Amino acid sequence: MSLGSGTIAEQVAYLTKGCVDVVRESELRSKLEQAAASGEPLVIKVGFDPTAPDLHLGHTVLIRKMKHFQDLGHKVVFLIGDFTGLIGDPTGRSKVRPPLTRGEIDANAETYKRQVFKLLDPERTVVDFNSRWLGSLTSEAWIRLTARYNVAQMLERRDFRQRYDKGQPIAIHEFLYPLAQAYDSVHLKVDVELGGTDQLFNLNVGRDIMPGAGLSPQVVMTVPLLVGLDGVEKMSKSAGNSVGIAESPDDMFGKVMSVSDEMMWNYYELLTDLSAPEISTLRAKVADGDVHPKRAKLDLGQRIVTDFHSADAASTAEQEFERRFSAKGLPSELLERVVAVQAGGERLAVLIVRVGLAGSNSAATRLIEQGSVRIDGERVTDRKCRVLPTAPAFVLQIGKRKVVRVCPEQATE
Known about the structure:
The chain is of the alpha/beta class and 413 residues long. The chain contains 18 helices and 13 strands. The strands form three sheets. Strands 1-6-5-2-3-4 form a six-stranded mixed beta sheet, with helices on both faces. It has a five-stranded mixed beta sheet with strand order 7-13-12-9-10. It has a two-stranded antiparallel sheet with strand order 8-11.
């Protein structure tokens, strides 16, 4: 789409799809009308503190919303918070988050830049670093900035209030984080700022201080935190329920196929560019029996893998998935592990850890007892099962996606 294409109502519907908060929609409509009339694109900002090197699908909910504005011809600023990362975002924290080192920030920022362009158009994306202006603010400028907000307003933020009520310490520098984020909007003359629902307070601080700088308050739009593969917790690498955008097509496709039929629709809404009416139509077809739920989920996997790899990679991943899990076959490229086994044999649980399919002997034992372990397709539930060094090579499978060929050999003395 080009700037101003489609009716304003259609643009608003496209941009607000999947959003939780829009503060305020009437202002968004007005800004879009002004942009269409003047031909001047809106400035859209999203800030990312480079706290970890890898992005997962949960991060892409925001990035995709940036893409939607970009699709309509607006200017998107991918702002790397290298300065605010030194402060440490206190959002959702019961204690101070340790600040990152400059080396960690620089390394993570480089990986961010490589990954976001899987969705965003690099020719139409401004990548900036907020140290460029925040690092040069004088002491007087910082004092003037802090004078625009008061302690009572800061304590309206839930996590600050909870810590204050419990007598837990709140460092003064933590109050600087939302103010620094707000100043980013002032410096960039932002029209719309996007963030997760947990960022609503910080984003509204920008709205509050912009008029004092002679600017129209930014429109604030938040998107929900994506639920992870477990269907319970928000997606995060530490929770083990994430899908990394740098993962292989096969792994990405297989993980998407593991979500429940009901959660699939949430992923359609937040992780694809389909419009709300298109998703509603597809959902109705599934409910009426015109489209099988599995076919809808396969199409979801196709769309997501295509976005981060290619259409060919998505097609191959679907074929591999069907071969492995529908036809109960094995991966075309089966990883092989040679393991040393003592003369008297080794517990299967120990070998599961050695080949990297479990993190500890106790975890491996639980997998066996739960019936998640198969040897050459046969389920093994005996926790005392042992493997001899003379045993022939066998295929060890944990669940649906973890499969290796194990080659026992006599351990040397």
